[in-house]
Amino acid sequence: EETFQKINNPKSGLTLAEILENLSLFKGQMIIQTLFVKGTHQGATFDNTTEEELLAWLGHLERLQPKLVMIYPIARATPAEDVEKISPDKLWEIAQRVEALGIATEVYN
Question: pLDDT of 28-74, one tens digit each?
Fold first, then answer.
C-alpha cells in the first residue's frame, strides 16, 4: 500500500485494497499493465522492483489470475526528477516469475 501511494499519489483516497477488490470481480478476464520504476519524489523513496514488493505483486497476480500481464518501464519524462528506468534484463527477470505462475506475460521496453 505504501509504495502504491508513493508512486500513484491518488488524490481521492483510493487504496490498493479497493483496486484489488474491484479487479477480483473480473474473475481473470482482464489484462494487468504494470509500470516498474524506482526513484525519489518529494523526499519519498520508492522502488517496486524490490523482492518484498515483487512478492506482494506476484501474490496479487496469483489471486487475480489475469489472462495477460504487460510489464513496462518508464518511457518518457516524469513529474519527479529522480526516477530511474528499469533495465530490460530486470523486466524479463520479473516476467519469468509471472510466467512461472502460469500467467502469460509481455515485456515492453
Answer: 999 999 999 999 878 889 999 999 999 999 999 999 999 999 999 99
Which set of grid coordinates corresponds to residue 53? 514488493
Range of the domain at 62: 2-107
Task: Give this prediction's pTM.
Answer: 0.88
Look at residues 90, 89, 88, 15 and name the one whose alpha carbon lies nearest to residue 47.
Answer: 90
| CATH code for the domain of 54 | 3.20.20.70
Number of domain units in the chain: 1
The shares of helix, strand and coil residues in the chain, as percent rounded to the nearest 5, are 40, 25, 40
